[in-house]
Amino acid sequence: MTAQTTAGHRSSTFLQVSIALQTLAIFFQAVTAGLLLSTSYGETLHGVGARVMYGASMLYVLAAVLAWRPGGGSARPIVHASGFLVLASVQVVLGIAHRPALHVPLGALMFGLSVLALAPALSAARRPDHSGTR
Description:
The chain has 134 residues and is mainly alpha-helical.
């Protein structure tokens, strides 16, 4: 395995981990949204989760750039990650503005899109490496 192949593999793994982290953070937000309605600590958990979700979206952008850079492949993951960051920014603004009629459906959309981004990343992780090494 060459150094470039190793760097590309590490970048790809980082991208997969960042998408998984983002998906888990968004799912955590759905859980804490329910707690927000039913417990005294739900608001605190939802606020912390919002910061983690936003950070995960920024990490996804970084991972997409790093995965693109070594191999010079498609910039499509950067566009997807940047789109998530825009959606996360809108989500934060809507949450702060207490606009649940828009905040909740956008959160559901973000979770669905994140799962759709995660599925190919996980299937790519399971594909065997045919780089010619034995």
